[in-house]
Amino acid sequence: MTTYRAPVADMKFLLRHVFRAEEMFATMPDTNEVNDELITAILAEAGKLIEGLVAPINQSGDQQGCKLENGVVTTPAGFKQAFAAWAVGGWSGLIGSVDFGGQGMPKVLSALIEEMNFGANSSFALYTILPTGVTLTLNQHGSEQLKQTYLPKLYAGTWSGTMCLTEPHAGTDLGMIHSRAVPSADGSYRVSGTKIFITAGEHDLTENIVHLVLAKLPDAQAGPRGISLFLVPKLLVDVAGNLTGETNNVTCGSIERKMGIKASATCVMNFEDSQGYLVGELNNGLSNMFTMMNHERLSMGLQGNGLAESSYQIAAEYAKERLQGRALTGPQQLDKAADSILVHPDVRRMLLTMRANIVAGRALSLYVAFQLDIGRFHEEADVRKQAEQLVALLIPVQKAYCTDRGFESCVLGQQVLGGHGYVAEWGLEQNVRDARIAQIYEGANGIQALDLMGRKTVRGNGELLKVLVAQMDEFIHEQQSVTAMQPYLEIFIDSKQRLVDTTAAIISNAVDAPDEIGAASYAYMELMGLTLYCFMWQRILAAALMAQEAGSGDREYLDGLIKTGEFFLYRMLPRSKSLVEEIAAGATVMMAMSAEQF
Ligand SMILES: Cc1cc2nc3c(=O)[nH]c(=O)nc-3n(C[C@H](O)[C@H](O)[C@H](O)COP(=O)(O)OP(=O)(O)OC[C@H]3O[C@@H](n4cnc5c(N)ncnc54)[C@H](O)[C@@H]3O)c2cc1C
Questions:
Q1: Is residue 272 annotated as part of the catalytic site, yes or no?
Q2: How far away, in angstroms, is 57 Cα from ligand 1 center?
Q3: CA–CA distance, 16 with 21 (Å, rounded to integer)
Q4: d(CA 295, CA 111)
Q5: Among 202, 442, 516, 526, which one carries the catalytic annotation?
Q6: Atom of ligand 1 nearest to the CA of 443
């Protein structure tokens, strides 16, 4: 059976040749020491830890799952040791603020490491990404006191964190939450309520758990504008950041039995008059929570990419060895009873679809991560603003498109193995089960599509898209004199224009027909995703051609990249035309049935 290998060479190619990371980081004072050498060392070190300690407990973790006894959640064998190694290695504070013990590294690096972790063991990855989201939120919105007390322990991996939004009757519509926060005389709050589906709400990996909880003050207005954000520790802490020895009435009521990510504890969490501290301003909790949600959404896209990569590695190895049938053009392996299934065009369709989506999905995730870094580190306000606009536009697409493609790749990988993909031994059925959740949590993909279409496009009159299109045009302009790029660029220019024209048509149709927004949204998100993958492939093809011409890099590797890019452009991108037709069909046929007819 193939064991997960961190795709460090692929990642380095993207960073060095496609995004020119070293040059980009050199332009910003806080990142100018992040050079190719450091990037290589960090990725290699992370890859070693993940291959050696995290991947080996993936299948056993799935089989054992988590256990809840007397309010205590036990993670599967090996998780404690792996998390301890993760913490000791300093990985919990990789992108953390240096003022509080973090290492101040760029998101680009942590995004790639997250992808590796998700590919090797998605349950384990979840225990690592949630605390990072908590630290980002605290660092951006918390008081100085809260930062001093909590950030060092979170960066050290001694404590972990959660995101407590969902309640039994309030999932997508968080405006309906019931959790309450009552002010205390000492300036803190008493938080009460029940949260469900809380990832890593309770476990045995760290000595304390820091919950970020959405709740409402008793006199808060109804709806999302009455929501505030509170930090509620599982165990009480003094101002110096030491445990006081007192508990805080935060208990785990039960853990869910579920389809996948079985080693990740999904908890019902009860807060009863638990001491909490306001994070950010009152009634601005949902907006502040978006710092964490944007981070987690990017991570979910990385989960899709990571599991797709893991499935591809298994399926490609298997296809080389599996002998069934003969090539349509005549036998290829005359000394064998049959040819490898790689001779069959349909098997190649599956593997190439996986490969093309993985490379483009990784590039898109890096593109978003670079914008996050520019937004955080760049000295010029207008450059930061442009990066933030791109993040706002791209996060819902990256989340939804990469998780959909990730799940699809896991299913395709399973199909390549035939019956062996369906049984547990090869790990592909686990990947399918583990990838499925990424399409649902952190805002179901339909909600991401609606956010992209409604808030980010129609309501903003397409202004954010103009920022993206300007970047695409800049690339086209740069490549205009490169002869070998011309056939690819023609396809890209057409594809970009399809997106621009479709956007204008939806904005105009939506003026007096609001259902048009919801009806167009999913296909529009897919059209945007395909166009972005096309943009990423253009950049990869340009970089590969340049490296080929310069005679640098592995020739076979570069040639394989170019062939995969051409498969994407000629066999996958044409789907954008049918998406345009689908969108043009409008809302009428969708809304025609009465509720009784369903
Ligand atoms: C394993 C797991 C881990 C999780 N971890 C966490 C966590 O750590 N913290 C946390 O707070 N939550 C967590 N969640 C909750 C998760 O984020 C929610 O399940 C998700 O956001 C969807 O909410 P819901 O399940 O209530 O579905 P609903 O909101 O009921 O939605 C059901 C369906 O209706 C659609 N829909 C709803 N409203 C609209 C609308 N206005 N327009 C169009 N379509 C709509 C949705 O897209 C979806 O397809 C987790 C869930 C699971 C299963």
A1: no
A2: 28
A3: 6
A4: 10
A5: 442
A6: 21
Show the domain range for 489.
Answer: 446-592
Domain count along the chain: 1
CA of 253 to the centre of ligand 1 (A): 20
Consecutive H or E run containing 358: helix 345-377
Query: What pLDDT is stored for residue 456 in this prediction?
Result: 97
Cα four-point dihedral sign 378, 380, 385, 387: negative
At 281, which helix (H) or strand (E)? none
Q: pLDDT tens, 223-245?
A: 999 999 999 999 999 999 999 99
DSSP 34-85: --HHHHHHHHHHHHHHIIIIIGGGHHHHHHH--EEETTEEEPPTTHHHHHHH
Which segments in the chain show pLDDT lower than 50? none
Among 198, 405, 383, smallest CA distance to 296 is for: 198
Which residue carries 């989960």 as its tokens?
303
CB 300 within 8 A of CB 438: yes
Question: How far is the centre of ligand 1, averaged over its atoms, from the C-alpha of 216 (Å)?
Answer: 20
The CA distance from 398 to 296, in Å, is 11
Integer Cα distance of 143 and 467 in angstroms: 34
Instruction: State the pLDDT at residue 438.
Output: 98
Closest-CA residue to 399 (of 483, 265, 296, 264): 296
| Domain assignment of residue 359, yes or no | no
Q: How far is the CA of 444 from the centre of ligand 1 (A)?
A: 6
For 552, the 3-state DSSP assignment is: coil
pLDDT reported for residue 1? 65
Mutate to test the pocket of ligand 1, among 126, 173, 209, 447 (most ligand atoms within 8 A of CB): 447
Residue with tokens 């005549």: 330
Task: Report strand pairing: 227-233 vs 266-278.
Answer: antiparallel
In this structure, the residue with its CA closest to atom 17 of ligand 1 is: 441
Q: Supply the pLDDT for residue 553.
A: 84
**If we measure between CA atoms, which residue out of 557, 398, 553, 568 comes closest to residue 16?**
553
Chain centre to alpha carbon of residue 34 = 23
> Does some domain include residue 170?
no
Indicate the top mutation candidate among 167, 172, 254, 447 to test ligand 1's pocket, ranked by most ligand atoms within 8 A of CB. Answer: 172
Q: Is residue 565 domain-resident? A: yes
Distance 443 CA to ligand 1 centre (A): 6
Vertex 86: Cα angle to 37 and 21 (nearest 5): 25
Q: What is the number of the ligand 1 atom nearest to the C-alpha of 170?
A: 26
Among protein residues, the one with the nearest Cα to ligand 1's atom 38 is 172
- Residues 398, 380: contact at Cβ < 8 Å? no
In a domain, 111, yes or no: no
Tell me the per-residue pLDDT of 368-422, one tens digit each, with 9 for 90 and over.
999 999 999 999 999 999 999 999 999 999 999 999 999 999 999 999 999 999 9
Can you list the positions of beta strands (E) in 206-332?
208-216, 227-233, 235-237, 243-247, 250-255, 266-278
Query: Residue 180 — φ and ψ, nearest 5°?
Result: -120, 150
User: Which atom belonging to ligand 1 lies closest to the Cα atom of 195?
Assistant: 11
